[in-house]
Design a protein that fits this description.
The chain has 417 residues and is an alpha+beta fold. The protein contains 16 helices and ten strands. The protein has a six-stranded mixed barrel, surrounded by four helices. A hairpin with a 4-residue loop joins strand 6 and strand 7. Helix 1 packs across helix 13. The protein is elongated, with a radius of gyration of 32 Å. The two termini are 28 Å apart.
């Protein structure tokens, strides 16, 4: 097979016989290689961005939510210390923290906003969530039992027009029943901190108060809504939750992040798959442009093919020559596309802000998208998958012109030479 390989590579570098000027390849060959390169580059960049979105979304969600949590069927977990102790005996569970979660409304002057209120134990909460690194002002330890302090999300604080030190009124949905009427339960809280998780859902709709204050406000006694768990491997959460549920009492159940936020990650994975298919079609179109390039090459090399056949070259060897020529053109495009795709994927966090600043636009608005910047995570498994698909499409595109070349009759081809 050394002879077809050498001739095929020589044809890649050769000028067209009827070409008036020199050049590396004909324009159509160059266009085919450029198309393959652009398609491969787009695939690598898009898949890297989708991977980045998936990882960033998971980290931000689990920085505020939990890997798993124990909750009761009636929403009131009284013996949470026993359940937490059982969970901590599991080797995969690193930490546990109780929480109270209820709905409320906050008002400040004329501004009113609905929110989820989460009562936490600051020392324990820091072990199961990453609020400490999200704090823009204040700290979790500023929440004191009986102090009625509150930590607001950045967007929620902005909507209410409050800063650290201001007082807001919390309106609980549970009313006070009096002989005259049912009155709403109101309590003033002092803003002791502001956090920014980077997800609009949490920044605009979550407030943190101390666990004791939440139990007092919502009249839960010593009960809690549940216990949040942190695991050493978040991808083992379904297995750990299933094993833990078998050891806990029947009046409680265990949920994990793959259940509570499954729609987010399924949507991202589905989008990644669809984008891969769509962009693969772009690569396929570019790859099949090689058909035109090889058809022109076969027409131009008819005399050469006939001479090779008369010298003893078999039809398979002639076919291999043009397969090598087309595959080499594809490999050149794949190499260029991979190089620029990897380069762009690794620097997307620099390139996109520069484009936004230059054009004066923002591609991802905070109030529309969960993530306002464009993350990227390059996985070499994706790169090799893209290269494999593109190379297979390129080789398939070379088969028909190469087969036609192998069927050329030497006598017919040399008749007018």
């Amino acid at each position: 097979m050394k002879f077809p390989l050498l001739v095929g590579l020589r044809y890649v570098r050769a000028k067209r016989r009827n070409s008036s000027g020199g050049g590396f390849v004909s324009f159509i060959s160059f266009a085919s290689m450029a198309g393959i390169g652009l398609g491969v580059m787009a695939l690598i960049v898009v898949l890297s961005v989708m991977n980045g979105f998936q990882e960033e979304l998971r980290n931000r969600i689990l920085g505020v939510a939990s890997h798993a949590q124990i909750v009761s069927f009636d929403g009131d977990l009284q013996r949470w210390e026993d359940d937490a102790a059982i969970a901590l005996r599991q080797p995969d569970v690193l930490a546990a923290a109780p929480f109270v979660q209820q709905q409320a409304m906050f008002s400040m002057d004329q501004a009113v906003r609905g929110s989820v209120v989460r009562g936490i134990e600051p020392a324990l909460e820091s072990q199961v969530a990453d609020f400490a690194k999200f704090m823009k002002n204040g700290a979790l330890d500023d929440l004191k039992p009986g102090g009625f302090g509150v930590i607001l999300g950045k967007e929620l604080a902005g909507a209410l027009g409050v800063q650290v030190g201001d007082k807001v009124t919390l309106i609980a949905p549970q009313g006070l029943v009096t002989p005259a009427a049912v009155l709403p339960r109101l309590k003033q809280f002092r803003v002791v901190g502001i956090f920014e998780a980077g997800m609009y859902e949490y920044d605009s709709g979550l407030a943190l108060i101390h666990l004791k204050d939440a139990q007092t406000l919502y009249q839960m006694g010593e009960g809690v809504s549940g216990v949040r768990l942190r695991l050493d491997d978040l991808f083992r959460a379904p297995r750990v939750a299933s094993a833990l549920a078998a050891r806990l009492p029947n009046d409680v159940y265990v949920t994990d992040w793959t259940q509570s936020h499954a729609n987010f990650f399924r949507a991202v994975q589905m989008e990644k798959t669809v984008m891969f298919i769509i962009l693969s079609l772009i690569v396929a179109v570019a790859a099949f442009n090689i058909v035109s390039a090889l058809v022109m090459a076969v027409q131009d090399k008819k005399a050469d093919i006939a001479i090779l056949r008369t010298l003893g070259a078999s039809p398979l060897e002639v076919m291999t020559i043009f397969v090598v020529q087309g595959a080499t053109m594809g490999l050149i495009g794949l190499g260029a596309g991979t190089f620029f795709g990897v380069l762009l994927a690794r620097n997307i966090s620099t390139v996109v802000p520069w484009i936004e600043k230059t054009l004066g636009v923002q591609f991802l608005a905070k109030d529309v998208y969960y993530i306002s910047d464009l993350p990227s995570r390059l996985l070499w498994s994706d790169v090799w998958g893209v290269l494999a698909v593109a190379f297979v499409l390129t080789v398939i595109a070379t088969l028909y012109p190469s087969w036609r070349a192998s069927r050329i009759n030497p006598a017919e081809a040399l008749r007018y030479e």
